[in-house]
Request: fold
Amino acid sequence: MTDSVVICIPTFKRPKMLKRLLDAIAALETNAVLSVLVADNDAEGRAGFDLCLSMEGYRWPLTAVIAPHRGIAQVRNVLIEYALMADAPFIAMIDDDEWPQKDWIDQFLGCAHTTGADLLQGSILFGRDASDGHGDIRHPTGPVGMPQGAGNLLMRRAMLEDMPAPWFDPDFALSGGEDRDFFVRLRQAGKCFAWCDEARAHGDIPGTRANLGWMLRRSYSVGNSDMRVLLKHCPSFPRMTAELMKILASLLLSPLAAVILAPSPNRRAIPLQKLFRAAGKLSAMAGRRYNEYAVIHGE
Reply:
């Protein structure tokens, strides 16, 4: 029996990147039955929506919708809502600043049938060293305890049908962390995750992200959103104590490590990342949030 997949793409004011992604999806080598769903989160400009309308003769059925409420969680929810209206047993999700290799879907589907996982994540290749904050996101193929993000996923329709809406918490609309919260709730519901290293996508690094300042802001943002997810799910006293000890260790040791590693170009940023991540966690504990997705990177 031939598998069918709805490929979901969230987009916001990046029509050039979206066009590259749609071209790559059109070039996929597969016998699967595919359809493509794009949700544009820019209700006024509608550049992504208009691009899709202009692509007559596209290889796969292509649908564009508007996600009127601003935020990464909201646009992902619109995608899931529309994707569930189709009868495809699988739903893929890939961000507009990525583009897949030609065997992407077939690798995902093969791994899904082999592992039986409810949700699979594929690797994202940036072609850069991890020391600059943009290293490849990879893991060996097989079961994993927790995925690392929603940028390159294959999900079973049945898993999403078992989950009440909203699938992604709107409280993380502009801050990010909606994906981690989504994964935590799935894990609590007993769902199984796997990694498929062969289902590879490539990631783009806009110039506004290729610098130390962005890398540190990103670390702060991840720390902030991760702590907000942890606090939302009411951690136990031992878990919270262990987290506080890690934060304290980072605050005390990272400045010294930064001084020691300053002469090493490939390692000097690592302790600074840990320091900013700890600071982000502390700010979340104080009730503050960092809205990373209020800024647009790329075109």
